[in-house]
Amino acid sequence: MKAALPGSETAPIRSGEGPLSAVDHEFVYRFMDLHRGEHRIATMARVLGVSRSGYYAWKTRPLSSRARTDELLKTEISNVHARHHGAYGAPRIHGELQRQGWKVSRKRVARLMRELGIHGLARRSGHGGRSPESTG
Q: In terms of Cα–Cα distance, which of 61, 19, 27, 20 is closest to 44?
């Protein structure tokens, strides 16, 4: 069973294809939240295989400490990226964050950069794409 948010045509509601596959609750709850004006929450919960109380708990639950830290890191990553004119990628931003005292992995920095839609500049080759023999 597959359903998608607008703009994401292939995102699955369930992580597997079998009848006992786990429901991706975060995705389903966001879907329900987007469509709550069109359909009743109780109806969507029943059809999508989640509890109504689970939706309301998700809606009122505060962000986890990791999610709060991710938000702070995203702000700092954006600042470092802008300060270096968009040239820094995940490895350099990771190093900069470590020098500032953040305890964070390079892969987490890369994930947050993907979520922000930012990336470093690709390095240019020193010979304009031609082989060294053909120059001259």
A: 27
